[in-house]
Amino acid sequence: MASTREWFESVAEAQRRARRRLPRPVYLALLAGAESGTTLSDNVAAFGELRFVPRVASGGGGLELGTSVLGVDVALPVLLSPTGVQAVRPEGELAVARAAASFGTAMGLGAFASKPVEAVVEANPRTFFQIYWQGTRERMSALMERARAARVKGLIVTLDWSFAHRRDWGSPAIPERYDLKTLARLAPSALVRPGWLAAWMRSGGPPDLTVPNLGATFFGAYGEWMGTPPPTWDDIAWMRSEWGGPFLVKGILHPDDARRAVAAGADAISVSNHGGNNLDGSVASLRALPGVVAAVGGEVEVLLDGGVRRGSDAVKALALGARAVLIGRAYLWGMAANGEAGVVNVLEILRAGIQETLAALGVASVGDLTPDHVLVPRDFTSPATPAR
Fold first, then answer.
1. Within a 10 A sphere around the Cβ of 227, how many other Cβ atoms?
2. Residue 44 above 60 pLDDT?
């Protein structure tokens, strides 16, 4: 289906439309990674190094794309990853929730999100809640209790962030508040994007940099997070015990950390480098995936987060052992391009790409994918035990 005003046929086209619609600082904030963007670029490039060997005349009919993650049935092995405060569209995470719900898939809602957890769960009951190790244990317990009361499906604790601020390739600073001085400075970039500006004006004004799930301003919550000593694996085990329900540890790249996460009680692991936004030069998520899968030996579910732009990317990750993949920038570009319908558009693109790839491989179900379905270069993966 060719692109039209209301439809784009690739995630790359969604990105181009997002660039045309968003003020330059907002677009760059979505695009950028740490330092030179080496890890961000390699997250995407790694998928291009794997090869398929198609099979023909394999017969078959309907293709099964459904799976389950932490006991939640999803119709598509693509989940929507938690992201921070969304200044892309006023509806923010609510649009994401509705789009994911329409596909029968799940989403992660970040503690730093722009919408309250209760409203998002109402829009999509298949919602997981993501938190950081932040503040006192009492405060974290209260936040977990709020998420539990909202009936989220599980908890995601994100560990792949070490307060990196290095953005030497163009990412703009996030304003602490939208006072008159800030608005005057940002006005030129917003005025040349009248569609974006009009949407926010209709909603009551510029983006509100508060995080309702934490009851604080974005920078107030961020400061609390930065002031909290990093957790130990004993702390993660405490959080697991305190939560008591399905528990996913996000940000695993090293096989030893995968084993520690299992020992701490994780039910699932997300292989992730925070979308290339933490330590630049970190191994791409896809390169780390086989080592992590081998390390946990089927004891827990393994997901992959980072670099997915096509349905065939998802198939490659599933073939290497992932239960499902998570997307971030892809759906934010879709929302920037066309709101909730743009998020749906991205999911439709990925679903079609998964179906087409399975058909070409002669595979009837995502559950039938194995490493034999991809050719992996000899030096592709991260070693199971890196040199010390």
1. 9
2. yes
